[in-house]
Specification:
This protein is mainly alpha-helical. It is built from nine helices and three strands; from the N terminus they run ααααααααββαβ.
Length: 314
Amino acid sequence: MHHRSLELWQHAHDFGQGARRAAEQRTLVVIAITGTMMVVEIAAGLFFGSMALLADGLHMASHAAALGISAFAYVYARRHAYDPCFSFGTGKANALGGFTGAVLLAVFALLMAGERLNRLIHPVPIAFNQAILVAVLGLVVNGVSMFSLGHESHEHHHHDESSDHEHTHHHGDHNLRSAYLHVLADALTSLLAIFALLTAKYLHMNWMDPLMGIVGAIMVSRWSLGLLRLTSAVLLDRQAPAHIQTVVKDSIERHNDNRVADLHLWSVGPGIYAAIVSVISRVPQSPDWYKTLIPSSLGLVHVTVEVHCCPGEG
């Protein structure tokens, strides 16, 4: 067989991962915002001797590191998109970035809960005016960052573990979701801190500050666990949502006497899937014929079909 004839049956496996995503640029903008605020707060904290500013600056540094992981995942996926070492492209770098960010978010929640529990048991004097100023600055910066990321709000709905509903969001950009949750967690921390500090200052309820910190830690941990479930499902090649499986199966079985004996359908990147379909038929057609039956709107980018002849019953 001539080499040119062989090329007709070959195709690239980048699946669009080589293109620069808009989310990559938005993440870089947020890193610049967070990094600038971090430097300003640390410098001001050292210059004015403010522990509150210094602590928040170091806290910003942890989120900047997490956002840096998200940016790295975008760049890595783009630069290695055409590397033949990756069987199905680099789309899962997105889920891996999201998974890593979710782990860091869980660690952040644990540290926040531990610190606030210690404050609840061993109260310390609070410099209210400085602390409120830092919290307001943090809320403003994170509000700008959330706007810059422009993340879809429906991505953050609670997923019911008892149903397949939680897996219907596999098409989402988990890397962007991770970056957004870090910014959202920071904004929530600032908002709860403002409420708690005002309550403590004017109503002398100093225990509200550590209590609100614990409430925030619980909420952040729930977000991180949700993202861990979603990203780990992609990394472990969990079957695609049931409704996509049903469409693939029905599109083949509604023609002639075809039956789908085996179906593997998994995510290989944001919004894209690979599939291996085993078909049994008394009058088998070519694999390409079966591929044309599957709707192109499902986002299947790599489909392998094996066909078996089922002899008629005597």
